[in-house]
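Troubleshooting: if your tokenizer reports a length mismatch, compare your output against this known-good record of 314 residues.
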Amino acid sequence: MGFRQDHLLGIEPLAPDEIREILDLADDYVALSRSADKHADALRGLTQINMFFENSTRTQASFELAGKRLGADVMNMAVAASSVKKGETLIDTAMTLNAMQPDLLVVRHPHSGAVDLLAQKVNCAVLNAGDGRHEHPTQALLDALTIRRKKGRLHRLSVAICGDIAHSRVARSNLILLGKMENRVKLIGPPTLMPSGIAELGCEVYENMAEGLKDVDVVMMLRLQKERMDGGFIPSEREYYHLYGLDAEKLAHAAPDAIVMHPGPMNRGVEIDGTLADDINRSVIQEQVEMGVAVRMAAMDLLARNLRARRQAA
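Known-good structure output:
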């Protein structure tokens, strides 16, 4: 059927074959990024605007690099210095940007649904770089690519997602994607950081790390989202690390060849032991960063193809 989306707003709208198409193309872009000449022309003649209303290092840098490697004209909008700070609404900002005739708009916003609203107001392809607690689709896709390349498949695996589930858009997107690809998903964390009704999404919920990690193939740790917490969700960071921080002792409950993941930025000694995070035999955290560029190249390439097709048909 092929990739049929006009925007990439979340994992939820994607069919399994569309997920596979993004990952297959991303594999090609991994090879390109490792070659001497890292440039292609899939986005030549197109303009990409990156608009980040929240701070970002990995996501913004990889979207910028992805666009430039594909030949786009890339602009990073400094939201802190923009008219948004003067009271301009998101819709007015969208209309202003739309008048500049962009082709690809990459948006990160602190409010869930804001990126979807913006996509309704512009004539270009919009990519969600994270909206509130809702979704972070390219993170889930790069995690999926990392898992598939390490494990040789992306189905019938046992995956544990551990930590601050309640505030994590990464957890939500990964849960949806892994479910679509027929994996067993376990969520592990304290009750205060577990959303109510989460088990209805087809996952298993554990409060104890040893029980939840038993025989899993993939251990995905999450950052404590302190900026989204407005109360005492954990007694202390020291207590949290003792119960839920990943170390060699807890990892021993997983499968012997289990891989360790983290979307970053990491709080070493809080969510994960620093030595384990750097263990090249178990940790794939640096591979996740590399896969991020390739996945974002693939997503923008496929969206640009559909955008060109729509414009030609109009």
